[in-house]
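Q: Could you predict the 3D structure of Hydroxyethylthiazole kinase?
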Amino acid sequence: MDNLAREAAHSLTLLKNRGPLIHNITNFVVMNFTANVLLAAGASPVMAHAEDEVEEMVSLASALVLNLGTLSSSWVRAMVKAAEKARFLGIPIVLDPVGAGATRLRTDSAKIIAEKIGVSVIRGNSSEILSLATGGYSTKGVDALHDVDEAGEVARKLAEDLGTTIAITGEVDLVTDGKRVVRVANGHPMMPVVTGTGCAATAVIGAFAAVGDDPLAAAAGGLACFGLAGEKAAAVAKGPASFAVALIDSLFGLTEDELLQGARIVEG
Ligand SMILES: Nc1ncnc2c1ncn2[C@@H]1O[C@H](COP(=O)(O)OP(=O)(O)O)[C@@H](O)[C@H]1O
Ligand SMILES: Cc1ncsc1CCOP(=O)(O)O
Ligand SMILES: [Mg+2]
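A: Sure. Here are the predicted structure tokens for Hydroxyethylthiazole kinase:
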């Protein structure tokens, strides 16, 4: 969809010009990588999860990213506090339900945030999204056991019910707000071999949401941008470690025009 590619390219320029603050409550595994990815995209990251400071911090931010990767009960309380404040202030919230379906704490916490508080975008892999929708699927941990297409219609219905946008990532990503369904064909098979690429993709969606007002466009644009950076990185990487470094470099160097030409966003 040319208009979504155009919107993505414009958002990248806004990001680089404005450097919006993105408040992340994310996991120990990916904190550093995520912060570097956000900086490379033009945003300004902060990682803050203390219950006593999240309301103040989110008040300074242009988007809130909640990630359940290494959660505990007190982290969940902090996420709920931050999310309630963000809702009050009209700040977009993006949720990454890492490992939903693997344990009850993860599935229940994701459901509380998605259903009781409400978020702009949920980004997960196919197994995580299926577990959120049905409660009946299990995952191997944080990696997907299902195809994106297996979760597509379930995600569309869930997005409609929750009034949110859902992005399922995989070889070809699917993004739906319950009415519209788009696919993003950017990316590279090396991406799931590096831990944190899903979490970083979620954070990039948060950055795009910070400079736009259409969550579906933010999710599709963020994923196209991140996936295209992955394609460029694969051309120079020797393996997963150098790929992770090259991904940050490619994102940093990605231009509005390259994104406009390289984004592969299609309807349906
Ligand atoms: N086989 C693949 N080919 C191309 N891109 C992929 C592939 N698998 C995942 N990606 C991309 O990698 C990023 C992380 O997605 P994914 O691996 O599904 O997340 P998670 O790490 O949460 O399971 C996304 O940008 C997605 O588009
Ligand atoms: C391995 C792991 N364990 C808990 S969080 C985490 C990182 C998951 O990151 P991603 O879903 O982006 O691969
Ligand atoms: Mg993940």
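Q: Anything worth pointing out?
A: The domain at 2-267 is CATH 3.40.1190.20 (UDP-N-acetylmuramoyl-L-alanine:D-glutamate ligase).
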